Every structure is written in structure tokens, then in C-alpha cells.
């Protein structure tokens, strides 16, 4: 009876799919599955020790605190930072807001005359909105264009910095087209002009090597669920020497060096740390495998759909990304609807409620019709050859169906 009550109390229990019945998941830029090793590391902190890591007056609290600090060390190691430079947050959206607004507001409190904040038109929504929000506080938002390949021309940045600038924010890896910006070169240009440099590295961490010291990064945002960790946890790297100063967004108990008050969720932090540890050790192996799966998928789909086009720089991109414009003027949403056994997307998950075509693709110069005919493919650590083959075949059939239907209308 107890079992029946439990099942009845969880209405979605029957909807959960086992691996055999699950759609082919090729949307690893939206989120990644939690690695089983990460789940195993988290479980004791839900069950055996649930203490608040700030409760250091007793043994369980001290154990939780040490687990948090060990996880922080793993996150720091992934990006070449010191552990004390890692501020734990709820994810990259919060980290980006804290980096951009926090830097601007602290500088304003010190009477800065630097009011310009520079970013790219292709940044994640949370960066664009953070920069735009600062306009109401007297700052000057500047959104730079990118080339048709999605990359920023360093000279465009240099020209923008002729006006005294407080902060430059450039995403390391674009979340839609997967292109990799030359962060070290852009950070150097920012520093020459006396500006701070921030990068949203949510899509980069675990996919490409990152070293905040070697690359000259002052602030860097991370999110665990993009690297096979749990949702709801992330981090902001804040350079210690020379020190970067931020105004906190939240008021409270002063956790995280006063920059992010609130009780830390030990299981999530531990999971983040384990995901970072695995990513640092297995990054090269992961990316080699993922690159092979990407080429397998592209070869199969390209053979079935002549005229398929890849958007973004052909080489300076992460291994698992494909941003594909379908020929024939088909609507990508219609193709996705005709391929229920495949999980892909048309762009950022954070923008999926919008009926407008991707602003990233429009910034590359794609006409609206082509932007609406584009799919984002994200291949990851657990994508199997069978999933790749099944997804390519089903998407090809769906495209053919939608194309024929549109031609007949």
C-alpha cells in the first residue's frame, strides 16, 4: 500500500523514460546530464550529513564545510585559480549579474569617471540585460558587432576602448554557434585601456582549457550543469591580485567573502566540485570522442540533406557544437515537431519562449528566413554512436516531410 501511495504522490513518475525509450539527446548546450560519478559524490550530503556548512560549532557542520572547500579547490583547479578566488553562486546567470553590476556599482561608489561597459551583440541574454540595466544607473552600454563567422575583430574592441571604459565582457564560447573567442588577446586589449575583463565561460569550462592567470581574466562565470554537474550551482572567479572589487547583489549573512550571502547547498557544491575534477582530468578524451561523433552526425545529415550549412567559424569552435541552417526555406520548429524522437533546439534555452528568430544568427547577417531554418546541435560526453545515427536519420526524414509539405502548399 505504501508503494502505491508513493507512486500516486509523484504524478510524473510514469513519464520518466529509461535509456532505451529516451529520445536521442543532442541539446548539450542547454544542459548536460549529471555524470553518475557526480551523483554518487552528492548522495551522502543529502542523506548521511545534511548539516549547514556554516555550522562549524559541531562536527557535522565542520565536515560539510570541508566538503565545500574541497569542491571549491576542484573548481579553482579547472580554471587555474586559487580556491579563495572562487565565489559560489546559483549559476552563470547570477555570476554574470554579480560580475557586471557588482563591478560597475563598486566603481560608482568610488567616484569613477569610467562609465562605458562593452560587450558583444551575441552574448547570452543575462549579460546583455545586465549591461543594459546599467544604463539606468548612468553607465554607457556599448554592444559591439561580430563578423559573419561570429568572432570579434580585436580592432573593433580597441576602437571602442578609446573612450575610458570600466569593463569589457566577452563570452569565451558562444552558446548557440559554439565559436571560441581569443580571450587572452581581448583581455590584453582591455587591460591596455585600463578596463576590467570578464568572460562568461559557462559553455567553455570542461570543453576547452582555461587559465585565468595566463589569459589575463579578471572575472569569470561558471555553471555546473553545463559540465555534467547539477543545476542550481555555479561560481564567479574574482581575481585577488591585483584585487577586483565588487558590490554584492544580495544582503545577508556575509557568506562567500561577503559577495554572495546565503546558505550553501552542500550536495550541489560537492557535485560541482566532482564535475570540475572529472572535467579537468578527462577534457582531452571527452573532446576527442565528441569531435568524432560530431563529424559522424554531420556526414550522415549532410549526405541526406544537400545544401546543409554550418554557421560560425569552421575551426574555432568547440568540438560538440553544430549550428545548421536547413535548405529549402523550411521552418526549424516544424522540423523539430516532425522529429519527436530527437532533442535539439533552435537556440538558447533562455530565449526559447521568444517567437523571434535567434538574435545571434541575425548578428551574423543571416536573413530572418534562414535564421528560422536553423537548428542548434549539442553533442556531449554521453552521446552514443547509435543516438547520432538515429538523430541524423530522423531529422533527415523530418526535413524531407516538411520540405515536401511546404512545396505542395
TrEMBL record:
Needed cofactors: pyridoxal 5'-phosphate
Q: Which domain of life is it from?
A: Bacteria
Name any one Pfam family assigned in the record: Aminotran_5
Q: Does the keyword Iron-sulfur apply?
A: yes
Please state every residue range assigned to the domain named Aminotransferase class V: 25-390
Which PANTHER family is this protein grouped with? Answer: CYSTEINE DESULFURASE, CYSTEINE DESULFURYLASE FAMILY MEMBER
Q: Please give the name of this protein.
A: Cysteine desulfurase
Amino acid at each position: 500500500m505504501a508503494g502505491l501511495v508513493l507512486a500516486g504522490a509523484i504524478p510524473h513518475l510514469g513519464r520518466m523514460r529509461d535509456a532505451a525509450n529516451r529520445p536521442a539527446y543532442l541539446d548539450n548546450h542547454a544542459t548536460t546530464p549529471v555524470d553518475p560519478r557526480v551523483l554518487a559524490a552528492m548522495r551522502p550530503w543529502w542523506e548521511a550529513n545534511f548539516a549547514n556548512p556554516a555550522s562549524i560549532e559541531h562536527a557535522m557542520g565542520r565536515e560539510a564545510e570541508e566538503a565545500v572547500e574541497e569542491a571549491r579547490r576542484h573548481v579553482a583547479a579547472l580554471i587555474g585559480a586559487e580556491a579563495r578566488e572562487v565565489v559560489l553562486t546559483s549559476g552563470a546567470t547570477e555570476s554574470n549579474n554579480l560580475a557586471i553590476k557588482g563591478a560597475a556599482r563598486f566603481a560608482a561608489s568610488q567616484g569613477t569617471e569610467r562609465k562605458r561597459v562593452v560587450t558583444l551583440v551575441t552574448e547570452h541574454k543575462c549579460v546583455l540585460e545586465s549591461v543594459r540595466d546599467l544604463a539606468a544607473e548612468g553607465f554607457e552600454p556599448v554592444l559591439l558587432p561580430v563578423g559573419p563567422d561570429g568572432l570579434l575583430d580585436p580592432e573593433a574592441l580597441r576602437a571602442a576602448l578609446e573612450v575610458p571604459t570600466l569593463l569589457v565582457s566577452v563570452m569565451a564560447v558562444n552558446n548557440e554557434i559554439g565559436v571560441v573567442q581569443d580571450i587572452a588577446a581581448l583581455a590584453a586589449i582591455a587591460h591596455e585601456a585600463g578596463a576590467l575583463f570578464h568572460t562568461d565561460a559557462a559553455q567553455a569550462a570542461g570543453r576547452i582549457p582555461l587559465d585565468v592567470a595566463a589569459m589575463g581574466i579578471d572575472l569569470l562565470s561558471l555553471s555546473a550543469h553545463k559540465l555534467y554537474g547539477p543545476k542550481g550551482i555555479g561560481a564567479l572567479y574574482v581575481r585577488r591580485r591585483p584585487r577586483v572589487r565588487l558590490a554584492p547583489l544580495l544582503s545577508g549573512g556575509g557568506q562567500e567573502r561577503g559577495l554572495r550571502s546565503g546558505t550553501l547547498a552542500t550536495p550541489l557544491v560537492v557535485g560541482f566540485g566532482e564535475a570540475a575534477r572529472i572535467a579537468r582530468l578527462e577534457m582531452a578524451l571527452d573532446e576527442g570522442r565528441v569531435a568524432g561523433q560530431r563529424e559522424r552526425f554531420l556526414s550522415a545529415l549532410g549526405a541526406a540533406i544537400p545544401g546543409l550549412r554550418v554557421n560560425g567559424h569552421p575551426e574555432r569552435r568547440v568540438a560538440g557544437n553544430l549550428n545548421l541552417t536547413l535548405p529549402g526555406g523550411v521552418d526549424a520548429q516544424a522540423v523539430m515537431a516532425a522529429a519527436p524522437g530527437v532533442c535539439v533546439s533552435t537556440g538558447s534555452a533562455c530565449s526559447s519562449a521568444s517567437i523571434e528568430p535567434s538574435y545571434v544568427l541575425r548578428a551574423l547577417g543571416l536573413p530572418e528566413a534562414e535564421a528560422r531554418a536553423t537548428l542548434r546541435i549539442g553533442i556531449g560526453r554521453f552521446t552514443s554512436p547509435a543516438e547520432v545515427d538515429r538523430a541524423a536519420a530522423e531529422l533527415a526524414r523530418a526535413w524531407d516531410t516538411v520540405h515536401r509539405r511546404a512545396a505542395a502548399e
